[in-house]
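Message: A physicist's question: would you kindly supply an amino acid chain plus fold tokens?
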Amino acid sequence: MTVRTAPLRRADLARCAELERVLFAGEDPWSEAAFASELDWGHFYLGAYVDDLLIGYAGLAVAGPPEDVEASVHTLGVDPAWQRRGIGRLLLRELLAEADAVAATVYLEVRTDNDAAIALYTAHGFTRVGLRKRYYQPSGADAYTMVRPALVKEPK
């Protein structure tokens, strides 16, 4: 099995929405139009592929002036049939490399009961800095806000 990452293709947005409905059942999963809007805004989105099958996706927004840039992980999802194989880790590392290229502090929200995701983020330098009560709707599940400080590039 060879997993490759590449910029998310518009042709994959229906598959993203399909995976959202599976991964975030009971919440308000993103639609194909929501993913299209993210791409239209110019945010950084990646797909993870086996052959031409999209098995995961992740997105990052970067904003602010160069001296005070920050990034936000908007989404990260992996097809349940492909979880626990390092694909989420691969996608996260690529998002973080994009943020690191501009020395951005990175923020994200994660359900307080998603132990696997919290462990992944913690292993990549994120710490909890806040609690958002009833953040996820319609379930009313809480979310932690997590942050990873900007990595400062060493001068050459």
